[in-house]
Structures
1.
Amino acid sequence: MSTQHPAYGWSLFADWAASWGRSALPAAHDDLVQFLVECPASRDVQVRRLREIIAAHREHGLPITAPTLTGERDHLWRDAKGLLDPQGSIAQAPKYRFPVGLVGRRDGFLLAVTGVLGFSREAARAIEGQDVQVTPGTVVIAGRRMAMEGAAATCPACAAARWLATIAPSAQRGRATYAAILDPTVAEPEEHDCLEPVGNDWKTGVPLLPSIDRWGALGTGESLSARAISTIVAARRIDTGFKEKVGAVVRSGGRFEHSSSAELAEAQDEVFDEVDRINREIEALLAEASGMRDHIDGFGDVPR
Ligand SMILES: [Zn+2]
């Protein structure tokens, strides 16, 4: 049922070890430390990666000395049943059509920055154009690096590059600006967007995490609030099984095919209300579950 990537952390580590000519099985303590430093992520994601690496060693009857993680537990990316990991949530966010694709692209950037790079909400809000360097296949933000990884749909560098290529200066922000870039009929979902040029518009002092209203208008002032970031991340992590239809799209004749903008906006509002409700439920569940999660199999020496 869950679309979380099985043992994603293990395969990431195995790839990392192979690229440095290090042994993944068994893994040396210092190599594990270096891996965690060079592949930053939120604390819960790092915990999950270590669990998977430990499980792989157990499976092969090999001993392992896992490093001790320090730092704050992360509220945004706590693991819980039914919640997607960063890559899964990036894959599920829509990338085409106005305005859902515009919102989905901004959220993909947010998911990559908080989930894959481990930025706090405040650190994410503070990101400016000058903090970001893009080269083909790599996006570096304030010294933290995302490289091309896995399939295009789940690639965090793609998620960042796609948004940078989309975001436009305030003077240009209108539906027409995005028409070509959000056109689902010309999408090539198998291709890595992180290998394509991202242009310069995002460097011109625009907030990189703006609010976007229901009609697709971008806020020009402050970044998203910390609370909005929590809500967006929680909503995007809910496994809905959504799969975007792109390519030579045949009209589906679906529920909203002939709906007016107002009707669509209303339907979207209902979704947001539902998301708010689910978010509150999740927070309550997490508060309840946090006591049980103090015993993580394999490295009980992790400070809490
Ligand atoms: Zn990519």
2.
Amino acid sequence: MNASFAPTIRHDWTRAEITALFALPFSDLMFQAQSVHRAHFYPNEVQVSTLCSIKTGACPEDCAYCPQSARYDTGLEREKLMAVEKVIEEAKAAKASGATRFCMGAAWRSPKNKDMPYVTTMVQGVKALGLETCMTLGMLDESQAQELAKAGLDYYNHNLDTSPEYYGEIITTRTYQDRLETLSNVRKAGMKVCCGGIVGMGEEESDRAGLLQQLANMPEHPESVPINMLVKVGGTPLENEADLDPFDFIRTIAVARILMPQSHVRLSAGREQMNEQTQAMAFLAGANSIFYGEKLLTTPNPEANKDMQLFKKLGIKPEAYEVHEDESEQEASIVHQLQEAAMDSMFYNAAK
Ligand code: SF4
């Protein structure tokens, strides 16, 4: 980390300032993003996160990108809320594999009152194993957020998805304001926030600027900012959307890094479709977190090996043993396994 370049943390970015960043020559934008990144993070470390789906599909919302919406026929297999025992079992397996954070996601508009005892029991049970907890369950009112925080939930994920202007093109069943209220309830309850959006949904650059402005001007920046690239799923309204130019994606990452210097900017959905060069540029632009699916902890995950090969080629280490203030040790343990795996002869050897 370079302490000599430590920009102040701002919450008053104007749209014009953000637009001007997007308009910089590519090298200048990358240089600025790298400078900010190096002032706040170890530049060659990337955090690894994981997710367990506790309830899949049959969601009543109409998010145009989402295969879990009950309104689109995407062939996704629906699953009911996982039994608490099963979740604890999965969490135990995760712990046995070395994880210290367990993230649980449910495809709901919001949790119903009847669901709350289950999810809070899950949180308590997972917490009792000595794991850090994270959930994404849709909208939360104030008392639900308090209840989850009281049960021991550490992080809550709720994305803004896009700019306020473009939002209506993507979702009609809940408002932007609903989302901001959930985020505010999460903060008020004292939990950490994971919040970002999706690009490549047919939006303009001004919408990407608008999304980042909303995130950067929150009273506190989200601790994690996932920037997703649309995954076009057959059966969803966005299945035939035109591809976003990878440079526009990289610019979005770089601007997010500049606006929110201390947040983990996460490459999430859509990463699998990116080639190694695009991913490398995203890391250069300041992305320092990647997302693995739920299978990582319970089954051999070839994707993990592919990712570790790329890490090795780029000289990137999973963020790990030195735990940052705003992050848990889970990544450290997962990463430990990955590092062990990296010893395996199947890995790329730059010396050969
Ligand atoms: S609320 Fe979540 S699960 Fe439901 S359709 Fe929207 S993105 Fe998908």
